[in-house]
Design goal:
Blueprint: E1 2-6, E2 13-17, H1 31-51, H2 57-69, E3 72-73, H3 74-81, H4 85-97, E4 101-105, E5 113-117, H5 119-139, H6 145-169
Antiparallel strand pairs: 1-2, 3-5, 4-5
Length: about 170
Amino acid sequence: MRIFHNGGSIGKCFFIREVSNLDKNDVEQHLGYQIGVLSHLLQNQYNKLLAKYDVTVAQAKVLFLLVKYGPQLQGDLQQRLYIKASTMNGIIDSLLNKKLIEKEASIDDRRSKVISLTEQGRLIDKQLWKQMENHEQQVFDGFASEEIALMRLWLSKMISNMVDNEKKEGN
């Protein structure tokens, strides 16, 4: 089995072969490398898209999570994003300066901070979702709905495996 994909803007071609035919010394054939390249390209495109709204990918993720789950402790948001506290603080500060979120002390524990969306944050989130849906349609152009569903399943399993491995290793 051989599937050809022209890498487009990277100017590379990727070949996916049966596992037994993989050259273990060719980094471009490793799944981690390919996912990394895809992630990098998606992140760059999303950043261009989001720049119109003066929001980064990381900031948009916070807005999405606040819409999905409602007001949350800053620590819970940090865990959902798999980032360090210092990174989370920078994202929160930026969103506060843009008046897209509010930050208040928790009623249960004054040391914990509850993060919630402002009306402006909700408005930006709605606009971002429209842009993201259009972008995702472009990314999956030529894919059957079954292929997209299967890819989502595989990615979810990989993420779950990685999270489980992190927990086992104590990270």
